[in-house]
Design brief:
The complex is a heterodimer. Chain A has 16 helices and no strands. By secondary structure, chain A is an all-alpha fold. The chains are: A mainly alpha, B alpha/beta.
Chain lengths: 366, 356
């Protein structure tokens, strides 16, 4: 029990250290260009957490990150690097809109599962293409998923602008989805207690549920076990009769499907239609979420919330500072990712400060 | 092993991304200085707008697009310098950022908040009812609420006028039009232009091209140039663009082919002096400035305000760069302008044509 506890604490050290390093480095930059670091930090925090509405916005920004982070993490577990979450999410959103426009009159109990299924299947198929090419032709998924992103953008653009376009608007967007598909904002419920007047909606709950399901699958099920074998010890798996190529395709299908689901909050919970470019790089930030969260369910939740807070807090930097803008949030994220990626170095740094923890960090870092 | 290779690839990419953002950060350093203008004026008590805070939420093109957003920012900056208001502007990276930006201004009790561009219609519709005491002004979109002023421009009138000029100028009886994104707003430019061309020269034919169908069409100068070269190649000798930053390519093509171009939104006569016949002006700057003035004087009201040739909200540019070039046609153009203002000439309006 005691050892387990200490191992857990040890596992927390690298990400927290990474956060600390990332934040300090960025604040130093802010200081160099002439802004008080303390003021920047205060703006970030009060901008993100200063009121119920602000917290609501932070959670709203964190919602799709939970799912794109999860998508990338699933692929990581299976030994794959999915950089295509952005494109998979785009197509997931388009699928939601197509279903929502084609069958507008369904009641929500049918409509929502149908839209979610369509998004999962579409994003999944897109991911599975890369998985198939990897399994059958050996072409690296980093290449194929990136390239498939561009095809996804083009396909989405065609469908949004030429087939399902909103005739009443000049914005490149689809028509509205039916009423049954629209997830209302939590604002108004419970006297604006939760999320204030922000567009925070129940897709947050759905996303958290998906994270829990992910944790369960990798801890308790055969599917999770095979996926881990494919990622961690493919030779052993092959020897034991596991079809690694099938596992690869399956992993990319599920990873892409989860990325497709990430469109639920921006599309069904906010705009009620799919706009071109609605993803706003959430698919790429998901990579950072998975890295910082080290593919663990609690880590992903922590990282997604952190990046949601950063996104919201940084919006106020535009207003309240002279020399830095909201781009600082991306700088902080980048530094955090760099720090995480150099975790071997961090671990030894930590070990020199606290020698007794060294073996545990080494073990949990694997 | 493979994963670690992928990882290092990713790291290289991400570091590059970070460096890009660092430069973005330093770029915003001079942004801060620009926004300070109002603050300096605060000390001078004589300025009527001293201490009044004005918020400006720009469209995705950003403050430096050299046409639409730049015009809005220019108007607000002028108000900061002349009237002494305190200006804060925000650029939106994506559609989801409009709403929180507008809301933040309203929460901080900015009396007047501008939403620049039709992309913000939905966001204004959501935020404005929640802050009935805050005034909002939206450019290029109509939001029917008591605290929202909609600033609309008669783009077709100005397009008719420059179309008329193109019709007079052409020797080959072929003129061109290059639109940015293929949407109703730009079709409005196009139909006005075509009508003007026909009115001036019934034999003239207009060749129409669009850069694209999505928002990237506003920022593709090389495609703009390619389309312009193709049109000049077909015998066209005057081209009018309504293509945002993509239109910059037109001026290069005009200089290369020794043909003529007509600018749009802002005064672009100086981009290639002697090659730009004139520029159709859409005075977003004037509209923004006037709205701020009304706010200061307590005369701000909701509703739709139209700008056209009559009030010079729509105009065409004459300066040292094109004075000689336009001289032979000026009298005729002024006559047409008067006729449009009086209603003797009815310019076809794409919006009206497509109302059901």
């Amino acid at each position: 029990m005691g050892i387990d506890f200490r191992a857990r604490v040890g596992a927390l050290v690298p990400p927290i250290l990474a956060l600390f390093i990332g934040l300090s480095a960025s604040l130093i930059i802010a200081a160099v260009v002439g802004e008080s670091p303390l003021k920047v930090l205060e703006i970030l925090l009060s901008g993100a957490l200063g009121s119920a509405t602000k917290i609501g916005y932070s959670l709203f920004y964190a919602t799709p990150l939970l799912l794109t982070g999860l998508s990338v993490a699933w692929a990581f577990r299976a030994g794959l690097f999915n950089i295509g979450a952005e494109g998979q999410m785009t197509l997931g959103g388009v699928a939601m809109a197509i279903v929502g426009i084609s069958f507008p009159d369904l009641p929500w109990i049918v409509a929502l599962p149908l839209a979610l299924f369509a998004a999962f299947a579409t994003g999944g198929t897109w991911g599975a293409i890369a998985g198939w090419i990897k399994a059958k032709r050996g072409c690296h998924e980093v290449l194929t998923t990136i390239l498939l992103n561009f095809i996804a953008y083009g396909l989405a653009s065609f469908l949004i602008l030429s087939v399902f376009k909103n005739p009443e608007s000049q914005v490149p967007e689809t028509a509205m989805v039916g009423a049954g598909y629209q997830i209302p904002a939590l604002s108004g419920s419970l006297g604006n207690l939760i999320g204030g007047t922000s567009p925070l909606n129940l897709s947050l709950g759905f996303s958290l549920l998906m994270v829990a399901v992910y944790g369960f699958i990798f801890k308790r099920t055969r599917l999770g076990f095979y996926q881990k074998i494919a990622g961690g010890a493919p030779e052993v798996g092959r020897f034991a009769g596991v079809r690694i190529d099938q596992q690869t395709i399956l992993a990319m299908f599920i990873s892409g499907g989860i990325a497709g689901l990430a469109a639920v909050s921006p599309v069904l919970g906010f705009a009620y239609k799919t706009r071109e470019g609605f993803t706003g790089n959430v698919g790429f930030v998901g990579i950072a979420v998975a890295l910082l969260g080290r593919n663990s369910p609690s880590g992903i939740v922590f990282a997604a919330l952190l990046f949601g807070v950063l996104t919201k807090g940084a919006l106020d930097l535009d207003l309240d500072t002279k020399y830095v803008s909201r781009d600082l949030a991306t700088v902080i994220q980048a530094f955090i990712v760099l720090a995480v990626a150099s975790q071997a170095g961090l671990s030894s740094l930590w070990a020199s400060l606290w020698p007794s923890s060294v073996s545990r960090i080494g073990r949990t870092a694997k | 092993m493979k994963t670690s290779l992928a990882m290092s690839l990713f790291l290289v990419g991400f570091s590059a991304f970070a460096v890009m953002n660092l430069t973005a950060c330093t770029r915003s350093a001079d942004k801060g200085k620009a926004s300070e203008v109002g603050g300096e004026g605060k000390g001078v008590a004589t300025k009527p707008g001293a201490g009044i805070k004005i918020g400006l939420v720009l469209d995705k093109g950003g403050r430096d697009d050299k046409s639409f957003n730049t015009a809005a920012f220019r108007g607000a900056t002028k108000a900061a310098q002349e009237l002494g208001i305190e200006l804060k502007e925000v650029e939106s990276p994506d559609d989801a950022a409009f709403e929180p930006a507008l809301r933040t201004f309203a929460e901080r009790e900015y009396p007047l908040v501008f939403a620049i561009g039709f992309a913000q219609i939905d966001a204004v519709k959501k935020v404005a009812p929640q802050f009935p005491k805050t005034h909002f002004a939206i450019v290029d979109g109509i939001v029917d609420m008591p605290n929202v002023k909609s600033l609309m421009f008669a783009e077709h009138e100005g397009s008719y006028l420059v179309g008329y000029l193109a019709g007079l100028m052409t020797k080959s009886n072929k003129v061109g039009f290059i639109g940015g994104m293929d949407i109703a707003l730009i079709r409005r430019f196009q139909t006005g232009y075509e009508a003007g061309v026909k009115a001036a020269n019934s034999k003239a034919e207009a060749i129409i091209n669009y850069v694209g169908v999505n928002s990237s069409a506003w920022a593709n100068p090389s495609r703009g140039k390619e389309l312009a070269l193709a049109q000049y190649g077909r015998g066209v000798d005057v081209i009018f663009h309504a293509a945002g930053a993509s239109g910059i390519g037109l001026f290069d093509a005009a200089a290369e082919k020794k043909a003529f171009a007509i600018g749009c939104d802002s005064n672009q006569n100086g981009i290639k002096p002697g090659r730009v016949a004139t520029s159709m002006l859409k005075r977003v700057d004037t509209a923004v400035f006037e709205a701020i003035k009304m706010q200061i004087e307590g005369k701000f009201q909701g509703g739709v305000q139209y700008f056209g040739l009559k009030d010079k909200g729509i105009d065409y540019a004459i300066d040292d760069n094109n004075a000689k070039l336009i001289e032979p046609y000026k009298a005729k153009l002024e006559e047409v302008r008067e006729k449009i203002i009086k209603g003797d000439i009815k310019v076809p309006d794409y919006y009206e044509m497509n109302k059901k």
